[in-house]
Design a protein that fits this description.
single chain, alpha+beta, two-stranded antiparallel ribbon, 2 helices, about 20% helix
Length: about 60
């Protein structure tokens, strides 16, 4: 599953740092410690195929 975090979000290292509360929606849907079947799909958190990701504008699959 992928969480689309781009919508309406802009973070910088100095002025608007990513903080834990920015990930609350993701953590709530991901449900850590529970089986994958318990994960809750939403508009911004759902499974995508590799092909669907590549078809998106400005795709970046880098993991930092």
């Amino acid at each position: 599953m992928v969480h689309d975090f781009r919508t309406g979000q802009h973070f910088t290292l100095k002025q608007n740092r990513l903080q834990r509360h920015h990930l609350d929606d993701f953590v709530g849907c991901y449900r850590p410690g529970q089986p994958r079947a318990a994960r809750e799909e939403t508009e911004r958190f759902r499974p995508f195929t590799y092909e669907q990701l590549l078809a998106r504008d400005k795709v970046n699959l880098d993991i930092i």
